[in-house]
Amino acid sequence: MHRQTQVICVITSVPLSLALILLVVLGGTMPAIGARTITSNDRKLWQLNRQYIDAYMKSDVGWYREHLADDFVCIESDGSILGKTEFLEQTAKGPDVAAYKLDEVHVRTYGVAALVQATGLFTRKDGSHGKSRYIDVYVRTGDVWKVVSAQITRTANTER
After folding, report:
1. Residue 36's pLDDT is what?
2. If DSSP codes are grouped into helix, strand and coil, which group holds residue 51?
3. Is residue 159 part of a domain?
4. For residues 30 and 41, what is the distance between their CA atoms, to the nearest angstrom?
5. Is there a domain that residue 160 lies in?
6. 102 near 125, Cβ under 8 Å?
7. 104, 96 contact by CB (below 8 A)
8. Whole-prediction pTM
9. Which of 145, 142, 140, 131 is nearest to 52 (CA)?
């Protein structure tokens, strides 16, 4: 059985990010990437990814409670595995970084499933810098996307 793969890539430089946000907010169309047009699902997943990061930085347990599947699993950089309850408890403690900026986001949809792969740059509370790469798996039921899995990899200190 052949499956069609849809892929988008968003480089989140300030001017491009602003343009994308304005296009989404104003209901405009977004440019085609490769041989296809960005869909409403792509826009929704990009938005959910941004909200996921914002919720992390704001310790917004309520956002995660609503958007994580009940059987959500997160594999942390150190290899530890968190279920939804443990993830919410960790979120309530606050982020372990002072700042986080998305650098690159790729969205791939497969019918009712989607992968969001991203790279982010962060500043630790001690002022040192790092990079993370992560992949979140979303599943759609009706019109609602929920995160079922996340895996995070952090690299060693990086200079910006």
Report:
1. 56
2. helix
3. no
4. 13
5. no
6. no
7. no
8. 0.76
9. 145
